[in-house]
Prior knowledge:
Blueprint: E1 7-14, E2 23-31, E3 51-55, E4 58-59, E5 62-73, H1 83-100, E6 104-109, E7 131-137, H2 153-159, E8 162-166, E9 173-174, H3 176-181, E10 184-187, E11 191-205, E12 210-214
Parallel strand pairs: 5-6, 6-7, 7-8
Antiparallel strand pairs: 1-2, 3-9, 3-12, 4-8, 5-11, 10-11, 11-12
Amino acid sequence: KEMGRPVEMEFAVNLSPDGKSSTFYLLQIRPIVDTSQNLSINWEEISQEQVLFSSHNVLGHGQLDDIRHILYVKTEGYTPAHNEEIAAEIRQINAKMTQLGHSFLLIGPGRWGSSDPWLGIPVKWTDISAATVITEQVLPGYSVEPSQGTHFFHNLTSLGVGYFTLDKKDNDSMDSIWLTQQPAQYESAHLRLLELPEPLTVLMDGHNGRGVILKGNHLPSSIL
């Protein structure tokens, strides 16, 4: 009732031998993602050249085709020692993007929103509120278990924000070369902000947790 939608519950139970003193522990309640939007994707029809980001672990459902900005953390020379500094810089960019009425795709390593800066960039939701799609990367040499959107789960589901996890062991992919080839609207030691000539297309199938982010919005009719 409070969530305004169906929920999934995570719980644990201690069972006593006599069954008279068992204890039920409620661990977590999360709203279930709305998958009522009809979306049927022919994955085999998607050309790899079109793909910017592909994941088999996606939270969200539906199609987005109005994202023209990408804010991403540069992975070359990345170290979590700078995560708090990166968070402060993202906060400033998000405030400017919000003021201009722009949304963006956010890409970075580790767990977004972690309270431990060694596990991820310690942003609060207000620091990334202009992001309509968030992605987290599992980087070589930076072995952090993905959060899969746990820190912002209610915000993601209530606002319809997509959350992608990139883990190459799951055959996920990202075209990093294409990203670096795009001219930057803003660039610092840790971040690049891109403004694309045409919006990206984001497809998320909440029924199987699979999603893809495509360069441009010219979809062949065979894909959908």
